Amino acid sequence: MSTDLLNPPEHALIRLAPKVLLHDHLDGGLRPSTVLEIAAATGYDGLPATNPDELAAWFRTAAHSGSLVRYLEPFAHTVAVMQTADALHRVAYECVQDLAADAVVYAEVRFAPELHLDAGLSLDEVVEAVLAGFADGQRDAAADGTPILVRCLVTAMRHAARSQEIAELAIRFRHRGVVGFDIAGAEAGYPPTRHLDAFEYMRNHNGHFTIHAGEAFGLPSIHDALAFCGANRLGHGVRIVDDITVAADGSYHLGELAALVRDNRVPLELCPSSNVQTGAVPSIAEHPFDLLARLRFRVTVNTDNRLMSDTTMSDEMIRLVDAFGYGWSDLQRFTINAMKSAFLPFDQRLELIDDVIKPRYAVLAG
């Protein structure tokens, strides 16, 4: 890896660097103050804390569980306050504002519409409220001098049976801001092959989709996501490292699945801090991100859940720089990897790479 010794990335400058985010959950990124305010307005009294700092600490501590299943439990509170059109619009709007403030120039934010029907909204009304929030957030971010493009991924819960409906929803809104489909939730016991009809529907309509795989369940889930479901990207995919053997002399051997992922340039939506919290890896320093990057897998940097992990894209980049000594050329490569892998038309991806990402990194690298 290049360390760019003449001008190593300083933390303050990393926060100014343009970023591309492919894996961020809307219900995992709320502002603690917003959770409290919506709860008070809607009468939800199940929160474990009553001020923003204590609530933020609770989410962070509860999510740091060493288990994906336990990591997902705190989402019951954020989902509970996202049941009305106004609440969904506000959360989506603030998501865009927070990402823009962190110099994110393109983001794909995902959420599960089926979890937001308790107050009587339809699936379409849920998506419309979120897209309206994104649109208003982008308008105001541009006016503030921090332009950002945000698109949506609609997610089906892998333990439920609505994936076909959600896939149809993705195609129905494909020209209104939804760029893809995803399945999420506990991996063990809920293989992606349970949702083959939904993936076939997406392929038949030339739709994009990513699949949460290789986070908690390892290589079999990655194999199923690619071989049977035809995923365009892997949500996390960190356990692909289990198919790589590194010898004492530094030489390596890729198993057949790892070779397929690298050779086919399958994007890995890696989320370092979240992977530590769920027990997928022991620490940032021991995260296989660096090995995968050195072996030229298509690695991307992501937040997963900004509230639960108490993180931002800048924080994730800073942690990687501190752990592995990355330079500006590395951060630019990870960012371009993500932009190349976005579910956005080619000309728009190329425009952001050539007109925004490369010029701004050139200035930062000096």
From TrEMBL:
It catalyses: adenosine + H2O + H(+) = inosine + NH4(+); 2'-deoxyadenosine + H2O + H(+) = 2'-deoxyinosine + NH4(+). It comes from the Bacteria. Binds 1 zinc ion per subunit. Its EC number is 3.5.4.4. Catalyzes the hydrolytic deamination of adenosine and 2-deoxyadenosine. Belongs to the metallo-dependent hydrolases superfamily. Adenosine and AMP deaminases family. Adenosine deaminase subfamily. This is Adenosine deaminase. It comes from Mycolicibacterium insubricum. The lineage of its organism: Bacteria, Bacillati, Actinomycetota, Actinomycetes, Mycobacteriales. The gene is add.
